[in-house]
From TrEMBL:
InterPro entries associated with the record: Phage_H_T_join
All residue ranges annotated as the Phage head-tail joining protein domain in the record: 1-122
Source species of the chain: Stratiformator vulcanicus
Entry protein name: Phage head-tail joining protein domain-containing protein
Superkingdom per UniProt: Bacteria
Length: 123
């Protein structure tokens, strides 16, 4: 891994510290904690049956793995069905565009990118 890749990973981790917001993260088992995550998006384009392009968007959340595991335990990882609440909206974690629910967002694995879908207003 080159110096440019490492710098990119450091820049991304710093962005979470600077742009990160406090969100409520609820595990499928009901455990809820406050974590710092930076909102983002991923677009995925595909060709439909008529040859047209269909673009779908995931509401993503960038989080430092050490922040996540500090709240939920060393072996904890995001799983499908976990929920994030932010500014009165609820986002359900789910796979997106052929990717799993979460993945490393940089080569140094300093960040996780969690894919989610806005499922509506908080009750």
């Amino acid at each position: 891994m080159g110096i440019i890749d490492r710098a990119s990973g450091l820049r991304a981790a710093t962005a979470v510290r600077l742009r990160g917001v406090s969100v409520s993260y609820r595990r499928k088992d009901g455990t809820t904690e406050s974590v710092v995550a930076a909102p983002g998006r991923t677009d995925h384009a595909d060709v439909d049956g008529n040859g047209g392009t269909v673009t779908v968007r995931s509401d993503d959340w960038l989080i430092r793995p050490e922040d996540f595991t500090a709240q939920f335990g060393a072996a904890a990882v995001p799983v499908e069905g976990d929920r994030i609440t932010f500014r009165g909206r609820v986002y359900r974690l789910q796979p997106f565009g052929g990717e799993p629910v979460y993945r490393p967002s940089d080569q140094d694995r300093r960040l996780w990118r969690m894919h989610s879908k806005d499922i509506g207003a908080e009750e």
